[in-house]
Amino acid sequence: MARYVALLRGINVGGKNPIPMPALKACFEDAGFEGVGTYIQSGNVVFTGPSSSQAALTERVERAIQKTFAHYEASVVVKSRSQMRTVVDKAPDGFGREPEKYRYDVCFLKPSVAARQVVASLPTKEGVDRIWAGSGVVYFSRLTSRATSSRMNRVASLPVYKQMTIRNWNTTTKLRELLDAETA
Question: What angle do CA 167, 170, 50 make, to 5 degrees?
Fold first, then answer.
């Protein structure tokens, strides 16, 4: 058994795909996962599950969610505890350290998508946006004072958007803490 986080894409955003967190927690428990907890309303679920391939685990999670919430076309990125440690520990130098000056996001990618390809396809505004490829993620920062000029808001219109889910840096680091705090 191992600890994981499931990151659901596109729930409880602007009234679309409403999924209550207690119901989501129950969905995971009904699917046989243990130590289930949720974090904020954007679809972050920490849980204990079998040590199996990422693809098999993701498929199991998506099937359970689809069965429970038929209105939601399940799209999930699953990361293990060690993968989340890597995401946080291997962030670019200084990433997340100036929250009064920059907004920081992490784009979690489906395994079929390479971070370097995503970096090459995402638009950026010089002097506003910065982007880096990571291990299964893309790090994105933008100047808060010029956030309206950022190209980050265009990501949702790109085909690659369906292959990712985005979390801000505070949520990303909190999820790592939650995974590390749990004992399986």
Answer: 65
CB neighbourhood size of 34 (10 A): 12
What pTM was computed for the model?
A: 0.93
As beta bridge partners, residue 109 has: 164
> Do residues 85 and 136 lie in contact, with contact meaning Cβ atoms separated by under 8 Å?
no
Q: What is the dihedral of CA 22, 71, 43, 9, to 10 degrees?
A: 170
Hunting for tokens 């995503």 — which residue is that? 118
Looking from the CA of 27 toward its CB, the CA atoms found within 13 Å total 23
Please say if the pLDDT value at position 183 is more than 60: no
Q: Which domains, from first to last, does the chain contain? A: 2-84 (3.30.70.1280), 88-168 (3.30.70.1260)
pLDDT digit string, tens, across residues 79-114: 999 999 999 999 999 999 999 999 999 999 999 899
Contact between residue 64 and residue 31 where contact means Cβ atoms under 8 Å apart: yes
